[in-house]
Amino acid sequence: MPRGAARSEAAHAAILASVASLVDRVGYDAVTIEGIAAEAGVSKQTIYRWYPSKSAIIAEALVEGRLLGEDFTIPDTGDTAADIAAWLEHVLTFLASRNHAALLSSLVAASVDSPEIGLRISERLGLGGPTIAERVQRATDAGELSPVLSPDQIDQLIVGVIMMRALGRNPYEQGEARRLVGALLEVTG
Amino acid sequence: MPRGAARSEAAHAAILASVASLVDRVGYDAVTIEGIAAEAGVSKQTIYRWYPSKSAIIAEALVEGRLLGEDFTIPDTGDTAADIAAWLEHVLTFLASRNHAALLSSLVAASVDSPEIGLRISERLGLGGPTIAERVQRATDAGELSPVLSPDQIDQLIVGVIMMRALGRNPYEQGEARRLVGALLEVTG
Amino acid sequence: MPRGAARSEAAHAAILASVASLVDRVGYDAVTIEGIAAEAGVSKQTIYRWYPSKSAIIAEALVEGRLLGEDFTIPDTGDTAADIAAWLEHVLTFLASRNHAALLSSLVAASVDSPEIGLRISERLGLGGPTIAERVQRATDAGELSPVLSPDQIDQLIVGVIMMRALGRNPYEQGEARRLVGALLEVTG
Amino acid sequence: MPRGAARSEAAHAAILASVASLVDRVGYDAVTIEGIAAEAGVSKQTIYRWYPSKSAIIAEALVEGRLLGEDFTIPDTGDTAADIAAWLEHVLTFLASRNHAALLSSLVAASVDSPEIGLRISERLGLGGPTIAERVQRATDAGELSPVLSPDQIDQLIVGVIMMRALGRNPYEQGEARRLVGALLEVTG
DNA sequence: ACCTAAGCGAGACGGTACGTCGCGTCTTACA
DNA sequence: TGTAAGACGCGACGTACCGTCTCGCTTAGGT
Q1: In the prediction, which pLDDT does B111 show?
Q2: Distance of alpha carbon D89 from alpha carbon D102, whole angstroms
Q3: Proximity of residue B101 CB to strand E below 7 A
Q4: Closest CA to D36 of D67, D12, D15, D63
């Protein structure tokens, strides 16, 4: 059994809280390890003891829900098209409010040199369990839908739209999500 | 009329050549102003005289075709769907070769802090003239196509796919572009 | 006979005026060639055409009386001790007023790497013609004085006092010059 | 009680050693912070952590005896005039050898912008304890001497001679110190 | 009345050094 | 042994001046 003081949960929490606050206020790029340490009242060494890099802290903050804190789980009501449309609307609406698009785009930039962050963003956006591709596949197998495009392509197109919105800051147009999903899934009704 | 010595075209060209070479060799993030200056045989001050930041240099290198040098103009043969499919295939094939996806994704990350770069990337990818949305709109007006989605949505979906590919490094699957464009534009043939 | 435009006296004068003003305002060290050029409305090239260095400009400004502009000629009334005392009093009084000590000390600092400046300062302080040593020698030869110290030593001591005053910023005490000169020249009266 | 790592004595010593060596080799003006850092194998930041400016480093090097390392303490044998004469001879002889006059004059120039340096030079030359003025005062009170000039004036004259020597680079003449001190202190013997 | 060789302002250029920031590693003293 | 504090070597930042070098204009003798 290890001797000496145990890992300080207070320090741990302070780090995550500070990094979330800083990312929100100044953006990912302008966040520095020294800034986090100062804001959290923690020594740099403590940070480096638990995290190998700035992006690892961000990744954990994502997992802990300190960033992108809302619940973006894809609902499961039996109507796959409606579920996905509702979820997409939720995501796009979220991006259109406050500086959430800026937050997400700075995280996307971060994910370029940290695949981990990309993965955590996906999870946070509700894609941690069954992905859109899987949902579509299942619905197709069940005869619920018969889309022209493959489930993977549909997944990619929808996530691509989210990315474009995060990067481009376009406003959200009422009903857009429903129309898009409807078209992609060939929901004729 | 401006007085004083004119801007040195030699220095100008050397800067752009060096930045292109460096981005290619070490990646966007690892490029430094001092590195550019050293490689170009130019003083830092000369760089700062003409560019406010690293991203401005990248933006100009993009405009000058020193990065993403290929011709990605969307063809115009009369068949809009085929034109766009051919163009998309070209872009996706390009991204699948060498370290081009890494290059583009690092540029996308850069564009988060520099809208200018985002704009120049679009231009370089052939979207500087009539956009996909415009092409689709024109074809729809001419009765050539009657897609379910709006031209803007189609545009966004297609560009979104390119982004996803750049960020995700998936390989390109033969014929993918054609299938995707076909489905989005409702080309039943 | 030379052809082409003649040296611009306007530029010449503007340079000297600016350098004098700048030395007075910011001190020798903080004066820059670029600052002079900007203040004088003159190009750097024009300055370098006529002066090899900053200290050369200072030297000329001294010669022209733009710095240390007062007349410090040693009087010649026949009474050597009184002459020197009067002169010394004049110099020390000058140093005690305004920021003249600061000016002189910055010039002394300049003279460390520019003997030319040292020479010009001496001239300006009235030592350009017969030096103190020469005056004392002459008075000694004439039987007017019979000092214990050699003329050169006396000269050095008196100039040394001026230096100390310039460097040390002590205030001037009424009658000090007279007492000092009296003692050094053994004027018993 | 201060926490954190203590100041590195190794770095501290290396800085002082380097600055002493550089001043000796290239002269005060040509010494740069970057040069010191490179020579000492120390980062610039470490230098700036402890010293606000180049002159502060010089001041400390003076205090530590890395520059003007000789012992210039004024002796105290009971014979004040002889003590001062011996000390002055020591100083003037020192200045006449090697490039010591150049060293001192560059330090004097530096002291124009840094009173601290001026103070440290005085201390180094043996004037840190009882000054010449104090020694003369004491001797006068004891009836040992009865000089015409005030102790302060004598002090100033003697130090002025040292300055003149430093700035003027005259050679030292055998016995000069003794004659000078003799005359100023009215030692008739 | 033209040349044409200076002089001139403006200012770009390759450099060197500045003083600052943040990195990731380390050392110290305390709990 | 974990922690806050903080020093350290390092690399890059963006700025200030250096002294040299074009530019295009003005000026004024020589033909």
Answers
A1: 94
A2: 18
A3: no
A4: D15
Say if residues B70 and B23 touch (Cβ distance below 8 Å): no
Backbone angles phi, psi at C33, to 5 degrees: -60, -45
Could you read off the pLDDT tens digit of each residue along chain A, which spans 189 residues? Answer: 455 666 788 899 999 999 999 999 999 999 999 999 999 999 999 999 999 999 999 999 999 999 998 999 999 999 999 999 999 999 999 999 888 999 999 999 999 989 999 999 999 999 988 889 999 999 999 999 989 899 999 999 999 999 999 998 778 888 899 999 999 997 764
DSSP-derived secondary structure for A17-31 = HHHHHHHHHH-TTT-
Distance from CA of C50 to the nearest CA of D (A): 25
Helix, coil or strand: residue B99: coil
- Binding-site residues on chain C for chain D (CB distance < 8 A): 27, 29, 105-106, 108-113, 118, 148-149, 153, 156-157, 159-161, 163-164, 167-168, 176, 179-180, 183
The answer to whether residue C171 scores a pLDDT higher than 90 is no
Calpha distance A94→B33 (Å, rounded): 38
Closest-CA residue to C88 (of C120, C47, C136): C136
Specify whether the CB–CB gap between A23 and A103 falls below 8 A.
Answer: yes
Measure the CA–CA gap between B145 and B147, rounded to whole angstroms.
Answer: 6
Half-sphere exposure (CA, 13 Å, Cβ side) for C54? 20
pTM of the model: 0.91
Strands (E) located in chain C: none
Number of C-beta neighbours around residue C64 at 10 A = 15
State how far the Cα of C16 lies from the Cα of C31, in Å rounded to an integer.
13
Question: How far is Cα of residue D35 from the mean position of the Cα atoms in its chain?
Answer: 24
